[in-house]
Amino acid sequence: MNILQMDMNLLKVLYLLTSTGSSQKTADRLGISTSAVSHALARLREVLDEPLFRREGHRQIPTLFALSLKEKLTPLFSSLDGELFGHVQDAPRNFTLVAPPALHPILLPLLAQKSTLVNADIRCQNFERRSWRNELLEGSIDMVIAVGHHQQRTSALRYELLGSTRLVAVFGPPLQPVLQHKSGLAFSELADYAHYYCHPWPQAENELDRQLERQGLQRRIQLSCADYAQLPPVLRAAPLMAVVPQPWFSAQQDKQGLLTLPILDNLAIGHLFSYYRQGEVEWKKRLISTLHTQLRPYYQ
Fold first, then answer.
1. In terms of Cα–Cα distance, which of 262, 260, 299, 272 is closest to 187?
2. pLDDT of 132-175, one tens digit each?
3. Fewer CB atoms near the end CB (10 Å): N or C, the chain?
4. For the stretch 156-172, what's the b/e string if a residue is b when 16 or more beta carbons lie within 10 angstroms of its beta carbon?
5. Alpha helix (H) ranges present in 129-202?
6. Which of 21-25, 41-45, 206-210, 231-235 has the highest mean pLDDT?
7. Higher local confidence (pLDDT), 274 or 156
């Protein structure tokens, strides 16, 4: 049978139970009793002729068949979340943002202010180079900000291009005598210098290094720490350069003795975009809009 032609109330139970693993949480979200959840589950098992869940302690563990049904239901229910399930009055406000650490100097002061103004628990999680689609659809995170535009699209998520920026090479006084007469660096010249690698993902997953490798080149990473905060003192202490997005340097408070050179090739241009669920509550929509407004001056 076509799963989408079934009783919508039964499908809501199935969707929430596969997401929460809890009859009580499913009942609370739907505003019904746990016995009503059990009755709906029994009806689903009868109609589909499939066990759907197995109990382990207090959790309902979905079968592979139940998970395959959830995959079909997620785009619909996540985009109509408020209309289908409503929102619990006076529920704790939580908002989880996934963003590259290079954006922290721009976003964290604003998020600190907004967490007080909207009385919300706001969490900023480091971006990893992988798909965040399932976490967004299931609601465990609320918004992803990323560089690129290669994510798998779905109608349940909204994608917004925020603009583009250029990578720059940052260096301090120890490297200044070597670079002081340059107005920019060709992409290939990055292989001529020793680098401080400050990104939270492995070098093999870094797009800049992938592009260099396609040209038969490789940067020499002399120090790696995955920490943008240590970049200024590192570059003031040693003849190293670090490649970062221009907005990070623009928002950086500690620039003493630091200089930048643009990386001239188009390969050094990155596009920033965000994606989030279509059917969000109003206060989350306002927060997302405010984050966009904060970022756009840095990304033309």
1. 262
2. 888 887 788 999 999 876 666 777 788 999 999 999 999 999 99
3. N
4. bbeeeebbebbbbbbbb
5. 133-138, 176-179
6. 231-235
7. 274
Whole-angstrom Cα distance, residue 39 to residue 43? 6
For residues 187 and 264, the answer to whether their CB atoms sit within 8 Å is yes
- pLDDT single digits (tens) 242-268: 999 999 999 999 999 999 999 998 889
- Listed residue (264, 291, 267, 265) closest to 280, CA to CA: 291
Q: Is the pLDDT of residue 113 over 60?
A: yes
> If you ran DSSP here, which 8-state letter would residue 263 be given?
B
Task: For residue 144, list its beta bridge partners.
Answer: 98, 275
By the 10 Å C-beta count (0-12 exposed, 13-18 middle, 19+ buried), 108 is classed as middle
**62 within 8 A of 17, measured Cβ to Cβ:** yes
Please give the radius of gyration of the chain, using alpha carbons only, rounded to the nearest integer.
24
- Helix/strand/coil (H/E/C) assignment for every residue in 245-256: EHHHHHHCCCCC
State how beta strands 241-245 and 143-147 pair: unpaired
Question: How much is the pTM?
Answer: 0.74
